[in-house]
């Protein structure tokens, strides 16, 4: 419902005001910036969106948070860079092009135009001169050059690899893009395939990426922990097992990596990955084994898929000889839970002290030998039932290790392994190199050519960019670039003979791993103007969803280090501060048939219960979850902005919960934000007590309530400033509301009140400027100011007025609260006692009994003991 109404004198006409101020900011180029060494810089950036077609409420919240920070820092005197761009490559555009019979470029740029217009209605303080789209050749040509530099530095390479294959999207997925064993976009089960792939050597920085997390003190702890776990540094040992084939054939030693080498005497089986060389070799002569491996390959390569799948094994018939007990051998299984990409692709199983190994041993009838027991346990009788013992303890059943603690046992085993040549200490990482090859059309071409004579040849820098063909057939299955009749055929850059282009394109995370740096000089002919990136980087405040904690953020940290190694930039961490905003949630609704309903398809019936708005039939209300098209619990930002205005939507996004928590969208909440908007408009434009003139000096004296309000104004500025610095935006809104309420209660006849009202409401308008910029500009103008509020500094604080002259002291009788007193700060004890003893509730509680003593805690409590 449109809230503007026709009486603009009594109702705030947000449509008129918002359009006016957006045009003014644009015409005056208020937010266009350049490097200025005379001013401190501040770079605030929200994660740029994929141009899906329309903004959603998650966008509104994300960009409102960033805009508040940008406007606040600008008012505090910073030279603020606040850009916007588009993460524009990706399979959704390719799929949409097929569905709508339109080229991905047209679909993408049409969506960008729509979303840009929607974002501009929010009044965001972007420097639109810096806008970029990653699908533009002027952007990705620098990316191609960067890749060639990475290749020269040994940070990019090509090799055969087992990969996650999405059978629907027909492309490779990085491990991070496999969620619960399924493609992160398609939602289907992924498969394993072996393909020749391009990789970025992110593992070259494993130690640095891990160690430098400690320097990111303005990142959420949980994000740092997620990255730490993903990098996954572990200290263990590599050990070798001699193998015996059932037919007596010679086999190479089996290398195993373990972090629990202390439990080697409890080992009762070995297991290898389905794509381990030993497994592949054995399968050549064993069709049953080959079929089992094929079944394993349908699991995908991610740990999540493997962790949730039923644990299956295939006994190869090969036996592994125990490295410390030559007379003991154990079976070698191929197991679907062993990853080739972790460690060596082989493990030894100790069922007594690993639950997965125990479940596997019970399933296949293998021995369970406990080798660690609680310190107070009887080693002779200690056994394992249904749960593996994973706590600390002492070694048992382990020959020369018996009686040692776990860490001492690890040290002893490692030493003996190294002494006998049977193994060595080793550090391992869970992190794997980043596979960046994708078999799709709508992505950045990889600038490599393959020649029968010269081999792999980089495209010359002067021949970049390698652009996409505009006539690719997107309807045929497989890679459209591979299927193109002419595009892939090219002369070899080295010898001129016939050659073939690389037909894979880059993973779209490639583009988003460096875009923040391109914003520093987006029109430069080279990737970065060095002076510009040296001035603006790192990003001072980055804002985005927690879902990017591993994928995008880790890749960007790697990319920054790689760019530094190649001489592009001088920093190694891209984002000094990180805010991960919560989700926007809404109730869910279903009709009688269990179909999801949109919020505007339900209403409350006469009995207060929800019904279908169209049919009147009963509707059920489900739990509140993240807004999503799949649950239909979405609210269109455009309709909200049209009905309430951008500022009201922004206020609700800021006031209802802390920015890092989920926000519950409700009609009552947005209505409440609108009521505050309207009330503030009326209080400033139609005040009950006329304000003093703008140039009227402060009165020689103020009435007590005016003095109290004047102090509250300065305390509010101080508190709101601190809240904004610490991202407590909802608390800042609450403090501003409190000040508005205080000003509304002032007696207009008291001395100095008109002057305090002007000071107070001018302060309120300046404080809400970063939150509700259109309303603030309109009220600032109404108060008689010619300079834009966007160009007005943050209000200053009179430190003297922050000092409390009076304090509220609790008064107790025998420890029970009986009232409070407002006393001068640091009152002497006698005056405080005298004031407390004459309080009505105190005299009633004392009731004539003798007062034994009065305890005074200065400025806090007075306790009367009777």
Structural class: alpha+beta
Mean of all residue-level pLDDT scores: 92
Report the C-alpha radius of gyration, rounded: 34 Å
- How many separate helices? 26
Distance between the termini: 63 Å
What is the approximate shape?
globular
What share of residues is helical?
A: 25-40%
Uncertain stretches of 5 or more adjacent residues = 5-9
Strand content: 15-25%
**Counted beta strands:** 37
Sheet with the most strands, sense and barrel status? 7 strands, mixed
Describe this structure in words.
- The chain is an alpha+beta fold and 866 residues long.
- The protein is built from 26 helices and 37 strands.
- α2 (57-75) crosses α19 (646-655), α21 (704-725) packs antiparallel against α22 and α21 runs parallel beside α23 (753-768).
- The longest helix is centred in the last third of the chain and has 22 residues, at 704-725.
- The protein is globular, with a radius of gyration of 34 Å.
- It starts with 13 loop residues before the first helix and ends with a strand.
Supply database-style keywords:
alpha+beta, single chain, 866 residues, four-stranded parallel β-sheet, 26 helices
């Amino acid at each position: 419902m449109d809230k503007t109404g026709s009486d603009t004198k009594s109702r705030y006409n947000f449509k008129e005001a918002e359009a006016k101020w957006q045009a003014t900011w644009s015409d005056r180029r208020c937010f266009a910036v350049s490097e200025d060494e005379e001013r401190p810089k501040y770079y605030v950036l929200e994660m740029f969106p994929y141009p899906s077609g329309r903004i959603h409420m998650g966008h509104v919240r994300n960009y409102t948070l960033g805009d508040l920070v940008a406007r606040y820092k600008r008012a505090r005197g910073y030279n603020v860079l606040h850009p916007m761009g588009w993460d524009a490559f990706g399979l959704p555009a390719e799929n949409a092009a097929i569905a709508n019979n339109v080229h991905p470029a047209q679909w993408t740029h049409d969506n960008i135009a729509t979303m840009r217009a929607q974002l501009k209605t929010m009044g965001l303080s972007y420097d639109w001169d810096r806008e970029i789209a990653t699908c533009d050749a002027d952007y990705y040509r620098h990316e191609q050059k960067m890749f060639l530099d990475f290749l020269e530095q040994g940070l990019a390479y090509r090799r055969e690899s087992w990969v996650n294959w999405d059978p629907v999207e027909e492309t490779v997925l990085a491990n991070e893009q496999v969620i619960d064993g399924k493609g992160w976009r398609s939602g289907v089960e992924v498969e394993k395939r072996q393909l020749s792939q391009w990789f970025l050597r992110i593992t070259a920085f494993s130690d640095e990426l891990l160690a430098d997390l400690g320097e990111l003190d303005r990142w959420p702890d949980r994000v740092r922990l997620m990255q730490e776990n993903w990098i996954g540094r572990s200290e263990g040992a590599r050990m070798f097992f001699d193998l015996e084939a059932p037919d007596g054939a010679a086999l190479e030693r089996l290398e195993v990596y373990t972090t629990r080498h202390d439990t080697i005497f409890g080992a009762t089986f070995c297991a290898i990955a389905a794509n381990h060389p030993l497994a592949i070799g054995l399968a050549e002569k064993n069709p049953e084994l080959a079929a089992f491996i094929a079944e394993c390959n349908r699991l995908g390569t991610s740990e999540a898929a493997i962790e949730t799948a039923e644990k299956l094994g295939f006994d190869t018939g090969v036996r592994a000889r125990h490295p410390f007990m030559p007379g003991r051998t154990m079976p070698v299984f191929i197991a679907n839970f062993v990853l080739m990409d972790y460690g060596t692709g082989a493990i030894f199983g100790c069922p007594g002290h690993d639950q997965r190994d125990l479940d596997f041993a019970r399933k296949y009838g293998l021995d369970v030998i406990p080798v660690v027991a609680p310190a107070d346990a009887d080693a002779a009788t200690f056994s394992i039932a249904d749960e593996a013992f994973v706590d600390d303890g002492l070694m048992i059943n382990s020959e020369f290790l018996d009686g040692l603690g776990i860490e001492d046992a690890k040290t002893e085993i490692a030493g003996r392994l190294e002494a006998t040549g049977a193994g060595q200490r080793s550090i391992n990482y869970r992190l794997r190199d980043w596979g960046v090859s994708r078999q799709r059309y709508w992505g950045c071409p990889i600038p490599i050519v393959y020649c029968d004579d010269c081999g792999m040849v980089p495209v010359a820098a002067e021949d970049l960019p390698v652009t996409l063909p505009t006539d690719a057939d997107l309807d045929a299955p497989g890679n459209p670039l591979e299927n193109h009749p002419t595009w892939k055929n090219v002369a070899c850059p080295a010898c001129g003979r016939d050659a073939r282009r690389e037909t894979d394109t880059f993973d779209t995370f490639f583009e988003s791993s460096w875009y923040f740096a391109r914003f520093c000089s987006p029109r430069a002919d080279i990737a970065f103007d060095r002076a510009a990136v040296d001035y603006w980087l790192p990003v001072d405040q980055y804002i985005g969803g927690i879902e990017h904690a591993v994928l995008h953020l880790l890749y960007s940290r790697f990319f920054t280090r790689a760019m530094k190694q190649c001489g592009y930039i001088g920093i190694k961490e891209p984002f000094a501060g990180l805010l991960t905003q919560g989700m926007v949630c809404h109730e869910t609704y279903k009709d009688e048939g269990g179909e999801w309903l949109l919020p505007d398809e339900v209403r409350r019936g006469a009995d207060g219960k929800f019904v279908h708005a169209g049919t009147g039939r009963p509707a059920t209300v489900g739990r509140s979850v993240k807004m999503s098209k799949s649950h239909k619990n979405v609210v269109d930002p455009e309709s909200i902005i049209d009905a309430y205005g951008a500022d009201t939507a922004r206020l609700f996004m800021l006031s209802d919960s802390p920015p890092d928590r989920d926000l519950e969208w409700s009609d009552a909440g947005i209505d409440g934000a609108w009521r505050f908007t309207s009330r503030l408009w009326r209080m400033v434009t139609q005040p009950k007590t006329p304000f003093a003139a703008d140039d009227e000096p402060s009165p020689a004296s103020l009435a007590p309530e005016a003095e109290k309000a004047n102090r509250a104004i300065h305390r509010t500025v101080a508190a709101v400033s601190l809240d904004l610095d610490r991202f407590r935006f909802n608390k800042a809104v609450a403090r501003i509301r409190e000040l508005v309420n205080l000003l509304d209660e002032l007696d207009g006849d008291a001395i100095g009140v008109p002057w305090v009202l002007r000071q107070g409401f001018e302060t309120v308008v300046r404080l809400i400027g970063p939150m509700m910029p259109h309303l603030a500009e309109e009220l600032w103008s109404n108060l008689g100011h010619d300079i834009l509020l966007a160009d007005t500094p943050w209000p200053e604080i009179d430190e003297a007025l922050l000092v409390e002259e009076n304090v509220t002291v609790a008064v107790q009788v025998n420890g029970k609260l009986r009232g409070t007193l407002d006393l001068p700060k640091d009152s002497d004890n006698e005056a405080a006692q005298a004031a407390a003893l004459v309080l009505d509730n105190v005299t009633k509680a004392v009731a004539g009994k003798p007062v034994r003593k009065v305890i005074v805690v200065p400025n806090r409590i007075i306790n009367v003991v009777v």
